[in-house]
Amino acid sequence: MKPIQMVDTKTQYLKIKERVDAGIQGVLDSAAYINGKPVQEFAANLSQYLKVPHTITCGNGTDALQIAMMALDLQPGDEVITPSFTYIATVEVIALLRLTPVFVEVDKETFCIDAKAIRAAITPKTKAIVPVHLYGHAAPMEEIMDIAKEHNLYVIEDNAQAIGSDYRFTDGSIKKTGTIGTIGTTSFYPSKNLGAFGDGGAIFTSDASLAEKLKMIANHGQKIRYYHDLVGCNSRLDSIQAAVLNVKLEFLDEYIESRQKVAAYYNKAFALHNKLTIPLVKPYCSHVYHQYTLIVNGVDRDELSQFLQDNKIPNMIYYPVPAHRQKMFDAFGGSSYNLPLTDWLTERVISLPIHTEMEEEQLNFIINHLLKFINN
Ligand SMILES: *Cc1c(COP(=O)(O)O)cnc(C)c1O
Predict the structure, then answer these.
(1) Residue 132 CA: which ligand 1 atom is closest?
(2) CB of 318 shorter than 6 A to ligand 1
(3) Which residue of 76, 190, 350, 369 has the fewest CB atoms within a 10 Å radius of its CB?
């Protein structure tokens, strides 16, 4: 059996090596390392795939969130509602821009921000909501957009973990996650579902004037070179990364299917076990399984994690400390929050290996070991 990895980007690469190598060679031949043709091509291809009018590429998913918040002219002290149960990048940029993060609970079944909790957290200072499509499952966007409309709030979708996921509205219409809110953002970090061979990110919007502003902010606030109208930053997707992503985008749907097959295999093995809760999928979305995350009950999660590790089964806790308990947020009153469900999940989640190259033998090995530990 091949050694088990959390992600296997190497085997994935070898299957499309010729095309990826040709793309990279093309950049080397052109010497257009910055903003070369592949960058514009990739932005256009991604727009087409997501059916969103505007895609602005940038340096990484954290920058994408920051640029999005800068473009909305949020002011210090403005409140931004966000889950505490997320990767730090989501909430870090809120603090970086001197905005006030307001942490709310997530839904126990989907790990995503809870719409009722959003409603309860709205104050006259609230300006924006940042839902995260965690692990590849969509936040309840229809309800979130209704709330945003009612209260005149911006919505920035952190789509770093769910690119390619479909969201179904009650009227039957379908949109890709990341294209529903005022702005959507994503990351092309190598282990993400659409991963580059280095850092990368993108921002999405349907609003043309907002798109222009986002583009300017990512490029030192300039539209005409050396004329800087806005305070911006320097955040670019490299031509080489765009060349890689252009090839991989063609395979994204296939990659998603492979992940869904792995998840289905795990689900079948774990569904009826009373100490395990498998990831649920709401009928409104397609889960793209950036992570396959179980909730374990009545078992010491950390001992399970160690047991798997001892048997050469990598596994991860996403995330071991929720945002509101990070020292970083002491100054924002983080420790005064009472988010029992977030704490409860933090102590019980465990993510198993899931990627596009997993073999049945590996899955059986993982399942057998996990069940052996749990049944003891
Ligand atoms: C990965 C990730 C980011 C940040 O992306 P980078 O490209 O690493 O900056 C932001 N939010 C979430 C939910 C992520 O998973």
Answers:
(1) 13
(2) no
(3) 76
Q: Is 82 in the pocket of ligand 1 (CB under 6 A)?
A: no
Query: Whole domain around residue 353: which residue ranges?
Result: 252-375
Choose the final residue of a domain: 216, 234, 249: 249
CA of 374 to the centre of ligand 1 (A): 32
Residues 151 and 164 in one domain: yes
Q: What is the pLDDT of residue 61?
A: 98
pTM attached to this predicted model: 0.97
Which residues touch 185 (CB under 8 Å, ≥6 apart)?
A: 61, 64, 65, 68, 156, 157, 158, 159, 160, 178, 201, 202, 203, 204
Same domain, 237 and 102: yes
pLDDT at 153: 98
Inside any domain, residue 201: yes
One domain, residues 89 and 106:
yes
Nearest Cα neighbor of 250 from 46, 73, 103 is 46
pLDDT of 74-123, one tens digit each? 999 999 999 999 999 999 999 999 999 999 999 999 999 999 999 999 99
113 lines ligand 1 (CB under 6 A): no
Mind listing the pLDDT tens digit for each residue in 194-209? 999 999 999 999 999 9
Does 376 have pLDDT greater than 90?
no
For residue 53, the model assigns a pLDDT of 98
Do residues 244 and 343 both lie within one domain? no
On average, the pLDDT of the chain sits at 97
Ligand 1 contact, 64 CB (< 6 A): no
| Same domain (yes/no): 213, 273 | no
Distance from C-alpha of 40 to C-alpha of 44, rounded to nearest angstrom: 6
Distant-in-sequence, close-in-space partners of 309: CB < 8 Å, separation ≥ 6: 315
Q: What is the mean pLDDT of residues 4-14?
A: 97
Residue where one domain finishes, among candidates 249, 269, 291: 249
CA of 375 to the centre of ligand 1 (A): 36
Same domain, 232 and 95: yes
Residue 2 domain-assigned (yes or no): no
338: Cα separation from own chain's centroid: 25
Number of structural domains in the chain: 2
Same domain, 258 and 366: yes
